């Protein structure tokens, strides 16, 4: 079990929870989310970060269980 793979999965879960629950520290005070919202709009930012979250979780799980075999 590689620590970087666990960190990638945790980052993906953080992104998915942040984008679905939208707590203030993530959605309103995060500099990168505010910049993305200003450039892309709320809907497209939600889509982009949802895809990023799924990609990170998928890649991390693939790396944890399938790559090491």
Largest sheet, in brief, is: none
Distance between the termini: 11 Å
Structural Rg: 14 Å
User: Using DSSP, what is the number of strands?
Assistant: 0
Quaternary organisation: single chain
List keywords for this structure.
single chain, 69 residues, mainly alpha, 4 helices
Question: SSE layout and pairings?
Answer:
Elements: H1 3-21, H2 24-27, H3 31-40, H4 42-67
How does this model look, in words?
- The protein has four helices and no strands.
- It starts with a helix and ends with a helix.
- Helix 1 packs antiparallel against helix 4 and helix 3 packs across helix 4.
- By secondary structure, it is mainly α.
- The longest helix is centred in the last third of the chain and has 26 residues.
Structure at a glance:
Helix content is 86%, strand content 0%.
